[in-house]
Amino acid sequence: MDAAATEDPLTALLRRAGRGDQAAFAELYDALSPLVHGVVLKVVRDPAQSEEVAQEVFVELWRLAARFDETRGSVTSWVATVAHRRAIDRVRSEQSSRDRVARQVSNVGRDYDHVSEDVESKFDRVRVRRALERLTGVQREAVELAYFGGHTYREVAVLLEVAEGTVKTRIRDGMIRLRDELGGAA
Amino acid sequence: MSDIDIHHLAAAYALDALDARERAAFEAHYPSCDVCRADVLDFRSTLAVVAEAEAVAPPPDLRRRVLDEIAQTRQLSPHLPSGVTDLAERRRRRQRTAATVVAAAAAAGLFTAGALIMNGGDSPAYATELAKVLDQSDARLVTLDGGGDGRVRIAWSGGAERAVLLADDLPEAPDGMAYELWLIDEQGPVPMNVLDRADGGEIRDAIVIDGDAESEPTAWGITLEPAAGSASPTGDILYAATV
Asked: I need a labelling partner for B179 at 20 to 30 A (CA). Which of A37, A68, B202, B236 fits?
């Protein structure tokens, strides 16, 4: 992984935002709103609810800006974590597991249209798709049901009709392989 | 959950694929575990790459709504750079707590070998303290809900400025972690005490509610914290009761 020799410009923006600089926060919004909205949409599915959750995520990022700790990962990594957690909280509070199970089964592997078309993000999409393809089928299935489906590993075990320990192992092995393929965000 | 199991939860944790209790247990564990901390950091950064590949621009008017709302939203203060200040405050608090109770016991002629039961070094005689609390006209007693594991009860009296905690069958805290009791009032959580859990999961602890807790408690809560204690809760609330 990259040595943090040059400071991530997002870190500088976040520090300014942490001191109440709304213009800096607006720049952060511009840089990160597609990521936040995209991951929330992928989990929550409903566009109107996804917008609401994305807004909650940014307000939370604003509130917590001064508490960002770069020894615990990059800004991008933190933002993705907060966004995913919020999306998960929304689906777990609003839908019974059974509803999500039924919908998720029909949605796994389905491709989504992406608005952004620049070469760099296209490159990233292909890279991620390739990396996911390197997982075994069962690893990929377990990781996707958890991350995009919003299921706990116990729920994934019920979905796949395998033991919880098996799912834990698939998730762990899948994530290790994904890490080896992708590394981390800058 | 055994210690071996918990090290294998980093990937599921990073995916937000743990249920609330396991999430709480893992959050209590991983900050003090080098392997798990590194795993969480790595997996989160890998998932950020996955998330970036899902990027979809939001509708343009979301920007204005977000910026309007943050303009009216107070930001939280930063965490202090290290735990030193907090720990110093905690040490003062604990010394004060122990000293006050010991002085009160001595003044009441109770300071005999049998009158103090020392749980972990600085806990006064809970039985005497409990009797004192229960004698007060404003004494209250609640059972904290912990979702199945163990039983925690608290008796307290604002008049006596005392609380006594009785816990049974509390699961063992992960290495380097300890249970911490919080009095929650209108201002938020006030740290009460790091609880010294005896073998078998029993805690008998008497606590002075000092001037920091100016209003009556609206709730009590217990979290898992680094063993030295925290100034504000960092773990999920494992046991709670509203008053």
From this structure: A68
Of all residues in chain A, what percent carry a pLDDT higher than 90? 65
Q: Which residue has the higher pLDDT, B108 or B43?
A: B43
| pLDDT tens, per residue, chain A with 186 residues | 444 446 789 999 999 999 999 999 999 999 999 999 999 999 999 999 999 999 999 999 999 999 898 888 899 999 999 999 999 989 987 654 445 455 544 444 434 444 444 555 667 788 888 889 889 999 999 999 999 999 999 999 999 999 999 999 999 999 999 999 887 654
Beta strand B140-144 pairing with B188-195: unpaired
**Interface predicted TM-score (ipTM) of this complex, two decimals:** 0.85
- Dihedral over Cα of B107, B112, B117, B121: its sign: positive
Q: Do A175 and B15 touch (CB under 8 A)?
A: yes
Mean pLDDT score, B66-83: 83
In chain A, the N- to C-terminal Cα span, in Å, equals 8
Burial per residue of A42-63, b for 16 or more beta-carbon CB atoms within 10 angstroms, e otherwise = bbbbeeebbbbbbbbbbbebbe
Interface of A with B in 16-45 (CB under 8 A): 18, 20, 22, 25-26, 29-30, 33-39, 41-42
- Enter the pTM of the model: 0.60
Nearest CA in chain B to A116: B56
